[in-house]
Amino acid sequence: KPPLLEVNQLRTYYPIKGGFMQRTKNYVKAVDNVSFSLNEGETLGLVGESGCGKSTAGRTILRLLQPTSGSITFAGKDITSIKGDSLRKQRRDMQMVFQDPYASLNPNMNVGRIVGEPLQNYERTSEKSVKLEVETLLEKVGLPTSAYDKYPHQFSGGQRQRIGIARALVLRPKLIIADEPVSALDVSVQSQVLNLLKSLQKDFDLTFLFIAHDLSVVKHMSDTIGVMYLGKLVEHADKHSLYKEPLHPYTKALVSAIPEPNPERKKDRIVLTGDVPSPVDPPSGCFFHPRCPHMMEVCKTSEPALKEVRTGHKVACHLYNDGQPSIQINFN
Ligand code: SF4
Ligand code: MG
Fold first, then answer.
1. Which residues share a beta bridge with 11?
2. Nearest C-alpha to atom 6 of ligand 1 is from which residue?
3. Is there a smaller number of Cβ atoms within 10 Å at the N or the C end of the chain?
4. SS3 at position 93
5. Tens-place pLDDT, residues 87-144
6. 227 Cβ below 6 A of ligand 1
7. CA dihedral defined by 207, 65, 77, 218, rounded to 10 degrees?
């Protein structure tokens, strides 16, 4: 079976105003040459610090943004440049759950209208059948059907996110792009919402692109993980090999930052020095080189390509060559 989603050499550049003496570049490479595929029913966790391009990647895949180049294939169909009615039809299959359940729900609409609106837009169906469908979904996301007549402000943050999830499900999409869906919520409700998403994935045959800024949130959700840094995918692997044996020095630092409840297994935290450089004027060579504890001369001038160094495990780093570190390094 072909993957549900295939992204090939995707680039999304934002134009920016020319800087001093027009010497700055006139665009930001928010997503720069990103390729991956996602199988039906699976979850890809896309992880990176804020500004790394992960949200832009998600919005480009949904075609809320027009890619600069590259291709997006959904269920075997090239959707990179579709427009108008075919884009509108395509959007039924791909829905988004947003980070902020406060901002993403219209405060003037009751829950019934919020959740039912996409259905009304797409199908000329009776009010009564929309209501039935909405009530079914409210129960599926763990809300009472009495929520139907209430307004967003009458709910807690976690409940509002459940409303947002019900709305995303009402058209029975195949793919859900969840952009940091729990990062605005109290830690105590985060795992409830994550568990809900997991059980809905089974019930509704969903495929997830799950965007997060740290690896702990996506750990239990994902089948594969992609790590982004300054617009580039620097590592992509199945969950187990990524957490057990991260290859990219940046991923190693992210993995070392995951809280480990068992003190005997506690590893030393790798603390990166320096901030994420500005994407307007990224470093030369490997974008990570100014912060990398293993930086070599070649890293300053040559950009490493993402390549498979073990089965299903891809990394963009000069340390790896044909599955072996090209030089001897003690990573601990
Ligand atoms: Fe570090 Fe060089 Fe690898 Fe970049 S290519 S992550 S600078 S070792
Ligand atoms: Mg974001």
1. 32, 69
2. 317
3. C
4. coil
5. 999 999 999 999 887 788 999 999 999 999 999 989 888 999 999 999 999 999 999 9
6. no
7. -20
Q: Given the DSSP bridges, would you call strands 175-179 and 207-212 parallel, antiparallel or unpaired?
A: parallel
* Ligand 2 centroid distance, CA of 54 (Å): 6
Q: Which of 224, 95, 252, 229 is nearest to 164 (CA)?
A: 95
Alpha helices in 76-110 (DSSP H): 84-91
**What ipTM, to 2 d.p.?**
0.97
- Does the beta carbon of 320 sit less than 6 angstroms from any atom of ligand 1? no
Domains of the chain: 5-93+173-325 (3.40.50.300), 108-172 (no CATH)
27-38 residue pLDDT tens: 899 999 999 999
Please give the number of the atom of ligand 1 that sits closest to the Cα of 287: 4
Contact between residue 145 and residue 177 where contact means Cβ atoms under 8 Å apart: no
Nearest by Cα to 142 from 154, 159, 117: 159
Please give the model's pTM, rounded to 2 decimal places: 0.92
Whether ligand 1 lies within 6 angstroms of the CB of 317 is answered as yes
